[in-house]
Amino acid sequence: MSESSVRIHLREGVLHLDLDTGPGNPLGPVAAAELDAARTKLSDARAIVLTASGDDFCFGADARAIISASSDDELDDLVDRIAAPLHGFVGALVAADVPTVAGVTGWATGIGMSLACACDLVIVEPTTRFRSAYPTLGFTPDGGLTWTLPRRIGRSRATELLLADRVVDGVEAVGLGLATRLAGVEGATADAVASAHQLAAGPTRALAVTKQLVEASCARSVGEQLDEELAAVRAAAKGPEGRAGRAAAASRTTPEFRTWNDGGGS
User: Fold this and answer.
1) Nearest-angstrom CA–CA distance, 203 and 128
2) What's the rounded Cα separation, in Å, for the pair 90 and 96?
3) How far apart are CA 22 and CA 65, in angstroms?
4) Closest Cα partner for 214 from 137, 121, 144, 135?
5) What strands lie across the sheet with 168-169, from one edge to the other?
6) Among residues 32, 39, 44, 40, which one has the least CA distance to residue 5?
7) Which of 67, 75, 77, 149 is least enclosed by beta carbons within 10 angstroms?
8) What are phi and psi of 6, to 5 degrees?
9) Would you say 6 and 31 are in contact if contact means Cβ atoms under 8 Å apart?
10) 204 with 256: CB under 8 angstroms?
């Protein structure tokens, strides 16, 4: 297998993760390990943006390597070396307190679709194409897709897409709720980066609690959720972000929730 790479750098509070593994950005063991290693940088970020170089976001796992496995033991080892680290990264991405944004161009299939669905915001182009692609190989989904996709578009629609292996373009993806919105003239990658930087400049503690409230809402009654919202907004109003926001509103200025230094990259 060819060497894979993921460009990683922290800039103005935003952790940039850019897939750059060759045409189609397939993910083999090297790229999977690099994404897994990026988990150590998540806590340094105020927002995370996931993009890809080239025409396509990600074709999924390195299918050629999987197809060419010569024995069950070799196949097990390869799947483990790809899926285990990718699952660690996906779990951390879903659980991240800070906003996460994906800019999806071209094809996002298999684990590529899973990575996109693990983000809070998914920005696409009309020519973006999503496909689970697992039935083609006789495989079952991975990368958390059976968990994230039903939460994005509902159980019935998710089941249909996963079983029928249907291709969904960017326009339909927005209509279904799989994607957040269509990009403007600058394209999905540029829009995703801009959105991540805008979010990083915001009240990230309040945004983290908002994410937690939304995630927990399905397991609570409306009364329980209202109680949690009351406790959260009281704490937020008294906290540093709330004080900064109130002061800016009083002076009719733009609030500055935090200043930062540029981080290192790799």
Assistant:
1) 31
2) 10
3) 14
4) 121
5) 107-109, 129-131, 168-169
6) 32
7) 67
8) -130, 120
9) yes
10) no
What 3-state DSSP class applies to 100? strand
Residues with Cβ within 8 Å of 149's Cβ and at least 6 positions away in sequence, in order, are: 117, 158, 161, 162, 178
Q: Closest by alpha carbon to 122, among 141, 147, 99, 103?
A: 103
Helix (H) or strand (E) segment spanning residue 122:
strand 121-124
Q: Which two tokens stand for residue 140?
A: 């079952």
Express each pLDDT in 184-196 by its tens digit.
999 999 999 999 9
Place of tokens 């009351």: 230
Q: Which of 26, 34, 30, 33 is nearest to 67 (CA)?
A: 26
CB neighbour burial string for 52-78, b if at least 16 within 10 angstroms, e if fewer? bbeebbbbbbbbebbeeeeeeeeeeeb
Give me the helices (H) in 4-154, please. Answer: 29-37, 63-67, 72-95, 111-117, 134-137, 145-153
pLDDT digits over 217-231, tens only?
989 999 999 999 999
Amino acid at 97: D
d(CA 95, CA 93): 5
Instruction: Dump pLDDT digits (tens) for 115-138.
Output: 999 999 999 999 999 999 999 889
List C-alpha distances in Å: 201 to 13, 121, 125, 208, 209: 8, 16, 25, 13, 16
Cβ burial of 114 (10 Å; 0-12, 13-18, 19+) is buried
